[in-house]
């Protein structure tokens, strides 16, 4: 009886024009619109849960989560809360009018139209949740470059420091050497150079690595990689060298 009345109304609407027919189709498709909404809502819940698992794994590894991923998950939680509250109120559309012989068409129209709107928003949000990566390995901060308590800025050392700083800012200079007897503070001076360049942000990144008289190449490569947030997949020193070169070259 109820569906017959809705069908008759829709047939009349066809004679009145497409806008009216479209509006009344919300009443006719009330149930299917809500079923579609619930289906897409469950899909989004599954996608959100899967994404959250990936985010949790990244955090366990000490990685930083991409900002767009965090924003997407927040949007997912918000839209799920909104949709669940809305579908929970859907029973309002079952109110009867005309002595209980037909559904409340006005309420059905409003809720059905909102169901379509929310379904569209959920589908669009789901499609926006395709990311190349969820997290990234943050470059480690070298605590040795935060402060240099051993450095004393007496006149001769300040002059040498300024000369080194100027030389490193020369685009034609690729390497600067600091020479002197053991124990006079060459390493301390080099560390101060790194601190000042890092503080002034003259370079995109400053890496400080101490190289002993007998160098351990793999250890040095590992220290540099840690500070770049780089993970090696190569086993040989030459392969790691190429990987570092490509990373530094950008």
TrEMBL record:
Pfam family, one: NB-ARC
Source domain of life: Eukaryota
SUPFAM superfamilies referenced in this protein's UniProt entry, alphabetically: P-loop containing nucleoside triphosphate hydrolases
Domain NB-ARC, residue spans: 159-246
Keyword Kinase set for record: no
InterPro entries assigned to the protein according to its UniProt record, in alphabetical order: NB-ARC, P-loop_NTPase, Plant_NBS-LRR
GO molecular function: ADP binding
UniProt KW keywords: Plant defense
Keyword hit for Disulfide bond: no
Protein name as catalogued: NB-ARC domain-containing protein
């Amino acid at each position: 009886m109820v569906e017959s009345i809705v069908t008759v109304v829709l047939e009349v609407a066809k004679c009145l024009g497409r806008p009216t027919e479209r509006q009344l189709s919300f009443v006719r498709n009330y149930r299917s619109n809500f079923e579609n909404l619930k289906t897409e809502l469950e899909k989004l819940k599954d996608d959100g849960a899967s994404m959250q698992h990936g985010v949790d794994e990244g955090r366990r590894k000490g990685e930083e989560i991409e900002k767009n991923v965090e924003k997407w998950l927040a949007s997912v939680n918000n839209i799920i809360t909104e949709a669940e509250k809305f579908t929970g109120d859907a029973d309002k559309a079952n109110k009867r009018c005309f002595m209980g012989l037909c559904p409340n068409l006005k309420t059905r129209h409003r809720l059905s139209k909102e169901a379509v709107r929310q379904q569209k928003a959920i589908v669009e949000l789901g499609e926006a949740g395709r990311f190349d990566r969820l997290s990234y390995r943050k470059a480690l901060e070298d605590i040795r470059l935060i402060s240099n308590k051993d450095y004393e800025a007496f006149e001769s050392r300040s002059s040498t420091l300024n000369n080194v700083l100027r030389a490193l800012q020369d685009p034609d200079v690729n390497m600067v050497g600091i020479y002197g007897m053991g124990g006079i503070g060459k390493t301390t001076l080099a560390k101060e150079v790194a601190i000042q360049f890092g503080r002034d942000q003259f370079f995109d990144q400053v890496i400080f690595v101490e190289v002993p008289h007998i160098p351990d190449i793999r250890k040095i490569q590992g220290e540099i990689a840690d500070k770049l947030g780089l993970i090696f997949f190569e086993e040989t020193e030459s392969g790691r060298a190429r990987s570092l070169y490509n990373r530094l070259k950008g």
